[in-house]
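Colleagues,

For the teaching module next term, I've prepared a clean inverse folding example: a structure given as tokens, and then the sequence designed for it. I'd like students to try predicting residues themselves before seeing the answer, so please don't circulate the second half yet.
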């Protein structure tokens, strides 16, 4: 149903560095790249992630209550993605850990302040 998620950016270069690193951990590279829009993923694959300078010319802003969740292969990858995010201009919104019911997640923001998480279901972790 969902093809990709687009997040606004005010700094294409910082956003590109962040998402190149985070999406690279999942094995995805850029599939579309213009002066204002970059998308990561694979054609015909699972939903991708994109950043863009807003078409209306106004500054990008963060959606209150909006979050993009990235499914990880397990707790080790959740921890790795969180580490990569922070090392590439992201900020911490919740260290990796069990959130109850076998839901293991880490929360972070990209350089523009958009909220993301990496998660998996890991009973007994």
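(Answer key — instructors only)
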């Amino acid at each position: 149903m969902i093809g990709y998620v687009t997040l606004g950016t005010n700094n294409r270069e910082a956003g590109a560095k962040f998402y190149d690193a985070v999406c690279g951990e999942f094995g995805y590279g850029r599939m579309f790249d213009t002066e204002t829009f970059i998308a990561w993923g694979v054609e015909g694959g699972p939903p991708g992630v994109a950043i863009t300078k807003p078409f209306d010319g106004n500054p990008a802003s963060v959606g209150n209550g909006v979050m993009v969740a990235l499914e990880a292969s397990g707790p080790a990858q959740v921890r790795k993605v969180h580490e990569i995010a922070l090392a590439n201009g992201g900020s911490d919104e919740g260290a990796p850990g069990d959130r109850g019911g076998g839901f293991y997640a880490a929360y972070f923001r990209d350089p523009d302040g958009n909220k993301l998480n990496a998660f998996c279901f890991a009973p007994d972790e």
